[in-house]
Design brief:
Two copies of one chain form a homodimer.
Chain A (H helix, E strand, L loop, with lengths): L2 H6 L5 H20 L3 H17 L1 H17 L4 H7 L3 H16 L7 E6 L5 E8 L2 E6 L4 H12 L3 E5 L5 H17 L7 E3 L6 H8 L7 E5 L2 H10 L12 E5 L5 H13 L8 E7 L3 H14 L3 E4 L1 H6 L4 E2 L13 E7 L1 H12 L4 E5 L3 H10 L4 E6 L17 E2 L7 E2 L6 E12 L3
Parallel strand pairs in A: 3-4, 3-6, 4-5, 7-8, 7-12, 8-11, 9-10, 9-11, 12-13
Antiparallel strand pairs in A: 1-2, 2-16, 14-15
Helix pairs in contact in A: 2-9, 3-6, 3-8, 4-8, 6-7, 7-8, 11-12
Catalytic activity (chains A, B): L-glutamate 5-semialdehyde + phosphate + NADP(+) = L-glutamyl 5-phosphate + NADPH + H(+)
EC number (chains A, B): 1.2.1.41
Main location (chains A, B): cytoplasm
C-alpha cells in the first residue's frame, strides 16, 4: 500500500502525518522567506505550463471525483462547482500567470524613521511563515491559494474538500512540478493526503506550532468551526449581509441601477446586497421605483409595513429577514428615518462587511462613511465591487470579516507580516 | 449590599454582570468612534488632574491592598510592584498627559488610490471597537491601558489583578471623572467590579461578541491561558528570549558595551538578552572579553563546552539554558560557526522577539537582518531598545510576539484597524 492508500484506509496515524507536514512546511518556509521574486514567479509559470500539459491527467482525476459525486447524489450546482474541463483548466493556469505578474510584497520598506537615540528604524514586509488553508469543493482553490501563499513567500498546507480530492491531487502535482522546476522545495505547497476529517482537527490545533495562520474558505459552517476551534490565528469570512441605503438626496435612476447590480449581478457572492433601506422622506416615490426595478429584474421583494403599503402585494419581511444572507434573488426592504435610521438598522442587523449609500449630498455621504463600522463603505457604487481584484489588489484568497490584521480583501500583502530592522552604531539604552 | 459587595460575596450572576459590561462597552464604543481628538485629550487631562487631586483616596485604597498583600505573605518585589506613593501617582498622571500629547491615529488616510472602474479607494484608520485587558498586580496599568484604548477611540473593559483591586478602583474612578468632564460616556473605561476568576472566563468567551480584542498583560501563565482559551483575537506577549551575536568582524569594545547593556540594564524586561553567541573565528579573544565584561558587571555565565574551555570556571550550560528566559543576571554563552551558526541557534531556540548582531561587516549584518525571523532585529545596538517609546511610538501597552496584526510594540496605531471608504459616481460592476 502507498502512503496515500494507507491514509485513505486509515491505517496510518493521522496526527503523526500532519505533524510531519508541519515540520516539512517550516523547513520549506525558511527557503521561501528569502527566495527572490524571479524564482517564485518561475515556479508559478512552470506550474501553469504543467497544468496545460497535464490537462488529461487532471480531467481523468476530475472524472473520479465527478463519478463519486454523482453516485452520492450531489445536486447540479454542486456538480458544476466540482467539474473541470479544458477551459476551466486554462483559466486556472491563467490565474497562476496573473499572480506571477503581481508585485512581490516581500522585502519592501513599509516605513522608516530615525529616533532620538540615533537608531534608524525600518518596518520591512516579510512573509508570515506557514499558512494552512481549509477549503471546500472547488478544485481551483488548490492552485489559487497555493500560488498566492508562495508568491507572498509562505509555505502552505492545503486541505481540500473530500469531493474534489482527486482533482486537487492532480492540480497539486502540477504545482509541485513548478516548484521543482524553479529549484524551490516541493514542500512549499503540501496537500493533506487524506480525506479523514481528523486532519482538519490537527490543523485547528496548529500542528505543534508550525502554523502561523489558518484561512477557511467555504460556507458558514466551515468558517464557524475553524473560527471557534482554531488554536492559531484565523482570517476568515463569516456573513456578508450588505445594505444599500437610498437617501432622500439620491438620484433615483442611479439608485435603481446600483441596487439592481448590487443585488442581482451575482446573488451568490458575499458582496451581494441583501437589504434595501429607503429614506422615509422620499419613500413614496423612491421605494416603488427602486424595489420595482429589482422586481422587474426578477427579484423577490419582502417589505416592512411601510414598504408593503407603498408596494401592495409584496411579502412581509419578518424579523429574520433583516439578518438573513439570502445569497439568492430575494431582498428585504425597509423604510428608515434618514441616514441615522439607516445607520441604526445596519448597526443592529449588519455583519460589518460592505454597505452602500446613494446620495447626492456630500455631507450625508460623509456621515454614513464615517459612522458606519463596516469593512467597506461605498458612496454611489455597487456593493458588488467588494473584491480584491476590483480594489486593484490582484487575486484574493477571500474577504476577511474580522477586524484584526486584514480587513476586507485578503490579497498578497495581507498574507505577509513585517519586522523591524534597526541599525545603530553601538547604542546602549540609558 | 451594594452591587460591588454582592459581586465580592458571589451573590450576583457573574456571567450576567459581564454581559452587561459588554453591552455598555459597545454603546460607549459607538460614541468613542467619532469622538474628536480634543475631547479624548480633554478626558485624559481631566483624569490626570483628578488623580493628583484625589491622591489621598488612592493612597487609602492602596493601603487596603498593601495590608491584604502583606497578610497573604507577598514578597518584597511583589509588594513593591503594588505600592503607590505620591511620586508614583504623579508619574501615572504624567503618563496620561503624555498620551494626550500623542497624535490621534483615528481617521488618518493610510493609503488612497484610483481604480480602473473610476472608483476612488481610501484605506482609513478607525478604532477597533471594544478591547478587553487582563492584567496582573501593577495598578498603573489601569490608567495606562485605559488611556491608550480611549485615545485610539476604543471602549475598554479592564480586569486587574485581585491584589490591586482597591487601588485600581480608585484610579478607575479618576478616569471616569475625566471621561465625564469631557462629555464622553463613563462606560468607555469599565473596570470589572469583582475579583472572581469566573469574570476572566467570561472575557475569554468574548462577552457575546462584544469584545474585538483581548490583551493579556502579565506573566507567562496568564498570557498562555488567554492565548489558549480565548475565543476572540489576542495580542499577547509570550517569551522574550533575546540573543546577542558577536561576529568575527565585531568591534570588541562595542560588543562589550552592547552585551552588558542588553543583559544587565534591566534584567526583568522582555528585551533583555538571555544568550550570547560568539563567532568561533574570534571566540578565543572575543568570548573572554565580552563574557568577562558581563561577569565583571555581576552576571553569572553559563557556557557550552567551547565557552568553558575559553573561560575556565564558568558553569556548564545545559540544553535547557538555551531556551530559558532567565529575567535575571544570568546569561548562556555559546560558540557558533559564524553568522549561519548564529541564525541556526536562534531559529532552534529563539522566541522570535528581538535579536542583535555586532559586526562591522555590512554584508554579514544584512544577511542576519534579512534571514532572521524575529520581530525586531538590531545591528550594533542593545536589545533593550525593544520598546515602543524608544521606537518613537509613544506609550505602549506591551510587545506582541505573534505575527498577525501587530508585531513588536503595541502602541496607539496597533490598537486601531482600518476600513475602506470608496467613492463613486453610480458605478455598477460589469
Amino acid at each position: 500500500m502507498s502512503v496515500a492508500e494507507k491514509l485513505e484506509t486509515g491505517t496510518t496515524d493521522i496526527a503523526a502525518t500532519m505533524r510531519g507536514l508541519g515540520i516539512n512546511a517550516r523547513t520549506a518556509a525558511k527557503a521561501l522567506r528569502s527566495a527572490p521574486r524571479k524564482q517564485k514567479d518561475a515556479a508559478l509559470l512552470a506550474a501553469a505550463a504543467s497544468l496545460r500539459a497535464d490537462s488529461n491527467d487532471i480531467l481523468e482525476a476530475n472524472k473520479l471525483d465527478m463519478d463519486a459525486a454523482e453516485a452520492r447524489g450531489l445536486t447540479g450546482a454542486m456538480l458544476d462547482r466540482l467539474k473541470l474541463d479544458d477551459g476551466r483548466i486554462d483559466a486556472i493556469a491563467k490565474g497562476l500567470e496573473a499572480i506571477a505578474e503581481l508585485d512581490d510584497p516581500v522585502g519592501s520598506t513599509i516605513a522608516e524613521w530615525d529616533v532620538h537615540s540615533g537608531l534608524h528604524i525600518e518596518r520591512r514586509r516579510v512573509p508570515l511563515g506557514v499558512i494552512g488553508i481549509i477549503y471546500e469543493s472547488r478544485p481551483n482553490v488548490t492552485a489559487d491559494a497555493g500560488a498566492l501563499c508562495v508568491k507572498a513567500g509562505n509555505a502552505v498546507i492545503l486541505r481540500g474538500g473530500s469531493e474534489s480530492f482527486h482533482s486537487s491531487r492532480a492540480i497539486h502535482a502540477c504545482l509541485v512540478a513548478g516548484l521543482k522546476a524553479a529549484g524551490l522545495p516541493a514542500e512549499a505547497i503540501q496537500l493533506v493526503p487524506t480525506t479523514d476529517r481528523a486532519a482538519v482537527g490537527e490543523m485547528l490545533k496548529g500542528l505543534d506550532g508550525a502554523l502561523d495562520l489558518l484561512v477557511p474558505r467555504g460556507g458558514r459552517s466551515l468558517t464557524e468551526r475553524v473560527t471557534t476551534e482554531a488554536r492559531v490565528p484565523v482570517l476568515g469570512h463569516l456573513d456578508g449581509l450588505c445594505h444599500v441605503y437610498v437617501d432622500k438626496d439620491a438620484d433615483i435612476e442611479m439608485a435603481k441601477q446600483v441596487a439592481v447590480n448590487a443585488k442581482l449581478r451575482r446573488t451568490g457572492i458575499c458582496g451581494a446586497a441583501e437589504t434595501l433601506l429607503v429614506d422615509e422622506a422620499v419613500a413614496a416615490t423612491a421605494l416603488p421605483a427602486v424595489a420595482g426595478a429589482l422586481k422587474d429584474a426578477g427579484c423577490e421583494i419582502r417589505g416592512d409595513d411601510a414598504a408593503q403599503k407603498l408596494m401592495p402585494g409584496i411579502a412581509a419581511a419578518t424579523d429574520d429577514d433583516w439578518s438573513t444572507e439570502y445569497l439568492d434573488a430575494i431582498i428585504a426592504v425597509a423604510v428608515v428615518p434618514g441616514v441615522d435610521g439607516a445607520l441604526g438598522h445596519i448597526a443592529k442587523y449588519g455583519s460589518q462587511h460592505t454597505e452602500c449609500i446613494i446620495t447626492g449630498n456630500e455631507q450625508t455621504a460623509n456621515k454614513f462613511l464615517t459612522e458606519c463600522d463596516s469593512a467597506i463603505l461605498l458612496h454611489n457604487a455597487s456593493t458588488q465591487f467588494a473584491d480584491g481584484g476590483e480594489f486593484g489588489m490582484g487575486a484574493e484568497i477571500g474577504i476577511a470579516t474580522g477586524k484584526l490584521h486584514a480587513r476586507g480583501p485578503v490579497g498578497l500583502e495581507q498574507l505577509t507580516t513585517f519586522k523591524y530592522v534597526v541599525r545603530g552604531s553601538g547604542q546602549t539604552r540609558p
